[in-house]
Write a structure and sequence with these properties.
Radius of gyration: 13 Å
Number of strands: 11
Distance between the termini: 37 Å
Largest sheet: 7 strands, mixed
Oligomer: single chain
Order of helices and strands: EEEEEEEEEEE
Shape: globular
Structural class: mainly beta
Number of helices: 0
Strand content: over 45%
């Protein structure tokens, strides 16, 4: 099983980034996919999640209206489009796959927003 995040980097306040998470080794379209983030000294928190079919999404209040989660089940990839980025969005962003008790995590990608 592999979840490989990409697309992180350094961006200025108000900028945009698109994160990708490529999955392999499991039946991707059966799994609910999520993005989490962890800032230094803080606990990991849920940012956004999407159902296996892509029909349902949910977001943390802090990112609603700015971030969009999507998935392409043909490409086994989940995305996080981030816009209007703020310094408080700075964190390591992790991709997570979940199906009942089966949970997989990616290694994370750093997002840094400069003020």
């Amino acid at each position: 099983v592999q979840l490989v995040e990409s697309g992180g980097g350094l961006v200025q306040f108000g900028g945009s980034l698109r994160l990708s998470c490529a999955a392999s080794g499991f039946t991707f379209n059966n799994y609910r996919m999520s993005w989490y983030r962890q800032a230094p000294g803080k606990e990991r928190e849920l940012v956004a999640a999407i159902s296996s079919t892509g029909d349902n999404t949910n977001y943390a209040d802090s990112v609603k209206g700015r971030f969009t989660i999507s998935r392409d089940n043909d490409k086994n990839t989940v995305y996080l489009q981030m816009s209007s980025l703020k310094p408080e969005d700075t964190a390591v962003y992790y991709c997570r796959a979940g199906l009942l008790v089966r949970i997989y995590w990616g290694q994370g990608t750093q997002v840094t927003v400069s003020s």
